[in-house]
Amino acid sequence: MKTIIRNVCIVNEGVRKMGDVLITNERIEKIEASIQNVGAGFIKEINGEGLYLLPGMIDDQVHFREPGLTHKGDIYSESRAAVAGGITSFMEMPNTIPNTLTLELLEEKYLIASKKSMANYSFFMGISQHNLEEALKINNENVCGITDDGLYFNNDKGILANYPDFLEKLFAHSNTLVALHSEDDGIIHHNTSELRKIYGEDIPIQFHPAIRSEEACVIATKRILDIAKKHNNRLHLFHISTLAEANLFDNTTPIQEKRITAEACVHHLYFSDKDYEQLGTKIKWNPAIKTKEDKDGLLAALLNNHLDIIATDHAPHSIEEKSGTYFKAMSGGPLVQHALPAMLELVHKGSISLEKLVEKMSHHVAEIYRIKERGYIREGYYADLVLLDLNHAWQVTTANTLYKCQWSPFENQYFKSKILKTFVNGNLVYENEKIQSDPVGKRLKFSKIR
Ligand SMILES: [Zn+2]
Q1: C-alpha count within 13 angstroms, C-beta hemisphere, residue 393
Q2: Ligand 1 ion: residues within 5 Å (CB)
Q3: How confident is the prediction for the chain on average, in pLDDT?
């Protein structure tokens, strides 16, 4: 099976170049200014004139809800939405039901994905109070890492960031990547009870960032960083939401050598507290969306490499689960289908270059997780590719939304850029606004951690 994309603008490794890309079976065989000899056999020709070819986005933080919460989403439905959004690989969180706290439960998720995933996949091992020994058994050439994201450490609903003694133990013994959610529960509980005194059960959503405050994020992040640095652990922090935290990360070490890395998420880069009035609990996320200064500061931190990558934290809930009073409405929302188009709006505004966006959504995700043979447009690498039209406006509607939950925080919005085609392992999986193939995702492989 051969496909050739001709006369396309290839955006890769900091530059854009006009040329042809030849895909043979699963891989990129040739990249040249003009490919003459394509060899024998049937060849599908794609005219790339006026279009851009990017490496597929690699999203290191999604909640696809299977097993156990499949009324919200499942690996099939959400991986379809992901490839429609130009995401060709994902890493998934352990707060499915049952929580992914044993090697056996972890392998069950890989088995489901091997049959149902449109995109390439890895699943995080969960960590909580009672499974440290089990969690440390993962093979880091085969599993992306260990995380607490979405899990409570113990029954009083605190999260791991609030247990420094356990973090010490975890970092002292772990030789794999540990990725954490960082907020301080004590501060959040205090802020909640203060606002409850005034508003009772009906706290206005605008106060979400006052409850899940900057202080709650900064204190927890400093605590985690202190312990990880002491042990020189391979730490990644998910969804940094404040400028104050972004400045805590090093921007002098080359990406391949960083022991501590961090990310910003699409919603924190796109929305600010000004949007609560219009969008309400639809944009209730943990950590909360904060001020415009934080939003702008996170983008600046990506540009100057204090922050390393962009992720989605895609976390679908049914529209009923997102409705109701402050305490009832769940946190999280669906993003994988719209993350790249939303970030391309920032490119149109001139806030970030296309080359830098590709670095933060593909190249550096591959680097910090040590993903083999993906994340770049290189001869011999897997053909995980996105073909884009930067000047093809379209509107987000319920009808063209592929999430099982059937809503989006971007509903009714127009995006200037459109994803025309997505390739996963050389297969054309998405074209003409439709999924075009059966599941073809493969398990991600990683180089051994230092
Ligand atoms: Zn989280």
Answers
A1: 4
A2: 149, 181
A3: 97
